[in-house]
Amino acid sequence: MRGGPTKPLSKLFPPDLIREDLRDFTGYSSARTADDGRPATIWLNANEAATGSVVDPEGAQRRYPDPQPAELVSALANTYAVSPEQVVVGRGSDECIDLLVRALTAPGSQDAIVQASPTFGMYAVSARLQGVPVIDVPQRDLGTIWEVDTAALAAAAVEHGAKVVFLTSPGNPTGAVVPTDAIETLADALAEQAVVVVDEAYQEFAGPRSAATLLSEHPNLVVLRTLSKAHGLAGARVGSALCHPDLATVLRRVQAPYPLPGPVTDLAIAALAFSVARSVDARVAQTRHDRERLAEALGADPRVRTVYASEANFLLVRSPVVDELLNDLRESGIVVRDMRHLLADALRVTVGSPEEIQAVQQALAGAVQDTSAPTEPPTTQPAGPVPGPRPQHTQPSGIPTQTTTTTARARGIHS
Questions:
Q1: Which residues cross the membrane (predicted)?
Q2: Phi, psi angle pair for 181, to nearest 5°
Q3: CB 244 within 8 A of CB 213
Q4: Domains of the chain
Q5: How far apart, in whole angstroms, are the C-alpha atoms of residue 246 and residue 85?
Q6: Of 323 and 2, which is predicted with more confidence?
Q7: Could you give the angle at the alpha carbon of 111 between the alpha carbons of 106 and 113, nearest 5°?
Q8: Structure confidence at residue 368 (pLDDT)
Q9: What does the pLDDT look like over 270-286, one tens digit per residue?
Q10: Is 315 exposed, middle or buried (0-12, 13-18, 19+ CB in 10 A)?
């Protein structure tokens, strides 16, 4: 989405969704935010160095940056077709996740979060640090694609009094998209109870419309975006939360000051320029093409049981001999992600350059030729939904409670 019109907001944000003790919290007043805006030429209010340093003789970096750089906020708003008041810029979308958990759940309370597993590990990490429970609702494995059960998410949120529900679309590690009509239904069902957060880190690779198109009608909806993937700026750490202006105000108050260094802001603004947009589109198109090549290369290995369809820049693979695949690739200097902390027999492979994909193909083909041991032939998973267990409940300490059949633990960060 780029440069589209914004819709006027038709509804107010429910104030009861904000953590009670933060509803009148004003946050830290930094030297930048405390100024009254009148013209000034001499700045002596932030205890900054009077001159540049040896490594920065021009003094370009001796001043603190703006907490929410107006030019970057405007560029992000234009890119995602929202108003600047709906944008909160953070140190990657990871910080935005943490801000949401801290602003919406009371520390050490039963203000649970709900997530559709397998999923990105940062949601559970933020909840663990906040001391609130994590409710896992298993996704359905349909054989070659995954499906999020949004009705089960809503039911779990109601049952456990959840304050935040996290979705990833396209999913990480599944690569599957959650339809916007399903997201809208979920947001409606939880309108007065919970904030529904849609993490769209990989949205550029997907094609379907962004959930940001739903923001004007659903004040309890938040969309997360990042410049780490399609824009190629993972090292810069630039993410954003798109949300109702009332919630955006609270998130800015909760946030530590000066989240983005000046050079990072400049880089992000340049990356969002209209003149650069065509190169981003070309990168996305190339990734989609190479994704098919990688899927063919992985699927050709007889040890691979399933290569899941993906709308992201990676593929989820399942094999009865994951250790063997990981070792064969590592022997060729290729590192992929071991996903067995989420799925017992899975790994995830990023869509690399054409040369890197060829190296993967050669490494796997050479390993198959070198082995004389029989391998298990590829099998097809069931075409219909595979019923999963009931939502799983984990206390923040990691000590299971007997509220459901099994328990899950808050995991470490997995990107």
A1: none
A2: -65, -35
A3: no
A4: 15-272+388-394 (3.40.640.10), 281-370 (3.90.1150.10)
A5: 9
A6: 323
A7: 115
A8: 67
A9: 999 999 999 999 999 99
A10: buried
Q: Which residues pair with 307 in a beta bridge?
A: 317
* Preceding peptide of 385 cis, ω within 30°: no
pLDDT digits (tens, 9 = 90+) for 162-176: 999 999 999 999 999
Cis peptide before 179 (omega within 30 of 0): no
Amino acid at 351: V
What amino acid is encoded at 345 in this protein?
D
Rounded Cα gap, residues 138 and 407, in angstroms = 12
pTM of this structure: 0.88
Place of tokens 């944008």: 87
User: Regarding beta strands 238-242 and 87-91, do their DSSP bridges make them parallel or antiparallel, or are they unpaired?
Assistant: antiparallel
| 196 Cα distance to chain centroid | 13
Distance separating alpha carbons of residues 13 and 15, to the nearest angstrom: 6
Pairing of strands 113-117, 164-168: parallel
Residue 369: pLDDT band with limits 50, 70, 90 = low
CA–CA dist 105, 114 (Å, integer): 12
Closest by CA to 197, choosing from 68, 91, 96, 87, is 96
pLDDT digits (tens, 9 = 90+) for 182-194: 999 999 999 999 9
- Rounded Cα gap, residues 255 and 251, in angstroms: 6
**From CA 336, how far away is CA 348, in angstroms rounded?**
6
DSSP 374: -
What lies within 8 Å, CB to CB, of 19 at 6+ separation is 102, 103, 104, 105, 106, 111
Please list, in sequence order, all residues whose beta carbon lies within 8 angstroms of the beta carbon of residue 390, skipping any fewer than 6 positions away. 404, 405
316-324, Cβ contacts within 8 angstroms, sequence gap of 24 or more: 316/173, 316/174, 316/175, 316/343, 316/346, 316/347, 316/348, 317/346, 317/347, 317/348, 317/349, 318/343, 318/345, 318/346, 319/345, 319/347, 320/345, 320/376, 321/375, 321/376, 322/346, 322/347, 324/367
Contact predicate 336/350, CB 8 Å: yes
Please classify residue 111 by burial: count the beta carbons closer than 10 Å to its beta carbon, then call 0-12 exposed, 13-18 middle and 19+ buried: buried
Using CA atoms, how far residue 153 sits from 180, 186, 196, 375, 409, in Å, is: 15, 8, 10, 39, 18
Which amino acid type is present at position 69?
A: P
Say which DSSP state 256 is in.
Answer: P
pLDDT tens profile 116-156: 999 999 999 999 999 999 999 999 999 999 999 999 999 99
